[in-house]
Amino acid sequence: MDKPAETLTSDRVVLRRWRTTDLDALDRAVSESLDHLVPWMPWAADPGRQRTAGFLAHTHEEWETGQAFGYAITVDGVVTGSCGLHRRIGAGGFDIGYWLHRHWTGQGIATMAAGALVRQGFRLAGIDRIEIHHDAANPASGAVAARLGFTEVGRVPAPEGPAAPGEVGLHVIWRMTQDQWRARDSEGARSG
Ligand SMILES: CC(C)(COP(=O)(O)OP(=O)(O)OC[C@H]1O[C@@H](n2cnc3c(N)ncnc32)[C@H](O)[C@@H]1OP(=O)(O)O)[C@@H](O)C(=O)NCCC(=O)NCCS
Fold first, then answer.
1. How many Cβ atoms sit within 10 Å of the Cβ of residue 128?
2. Is residue 16 part of a domain?
């Protein structure tokens, strides 16, 4: 199976495949950011070192099976968040997830990370679309998609309602096609 590179670079952001030795750094990033994560990330309601270790083990397995490719978002070697390409939207597609440590927001880091994932995702065989899904009450997440040039293609009620306390239970779906991404890249190249 076609797999992505284990390290991706975009501007000052380096994404690298999560490894089990990241336990301390990831656990610290989560525990220092709980107030900012709990409204949107269902897993943040029940944090802890064991759960973090479980996440790293699961992420390793998903990489091996090709179900998802999870990366640490790093800046100058410091773990600043997490992101990944997931096969949750059917054949030919990936969706992207991300979160940042609360101290690293507002600097374009999530946008750079998601951009690196899109670039890599479209290099994998058979991928023709990449989506970002978020709750309608979470515009900061949608702004990442908008900054990268994704198009909002729909709003769908979450079948089981809100999954985290900040959510209203309405999924906003943003999409980028392979053709749109190529056009955007060549536009960027033309304008220098
Ligand atoms: C969603 C989340 C990752 C977005 O983080 P963010 O900091 O807003 O996004 P970025 O890192 O791309 O930073 C964008 C900001 O940096 C600014 N910025 C500075 N330099 C920039 C650059 N080179 N490129 C892009 N943006 C830049 C942007 O103008 C923007 O500022 P604004 O917030 O005042 O509009 C963050 O809010 C988060 O972790 N939330 C909790 C978890 C979550 O909701 N995850 C998503 C679930 S669907």
1. 11
2. yes
Nearest protein CA to atom 37 of ligand 1, as residue? 140
1: in domain? no
The CATH number assigned to the domain holding 113 equals 3.40.630.30
Each residue's pLDDT tens digit, 29-45: 999 999 999 999 999 99
For residue 161, what are its two tokens?
Answer: 């309602």
Total count of residues recorded for the chain = 192
Q: Give helix 49-65 / helix 23-31 axis angle, nearest 10°.
A: 120
Q: Which residue's CA is the closest to the ligand 1 atom numbered 7?
A: 105
Q: Alpha carbon 122 to chain centroid distance? A: 15
DSSP state at residue 8? E
* Ligand 1 center to 60 CA (angstroms): 26
Single-letter residue type at 108: G
Q: Residue 77 in contact with residue 92, Cβ under 8 Å?
A: no
Which of 75, 105, 118, 147 gets mutated to test ligand 1 (max ligand atoms within 8 A of its CB)?
A: 105
Instruction: State pTM to two decimals.
Output: 0.97
Please tell me the total count of domains within the chain.
1
Beta-bridge mates of residue 177: 129
The residue-averaged pLDDT of 47-69 equals 97
Coil, strand or helix: which one is 153? strand
Domain of 30?
A: 7-190
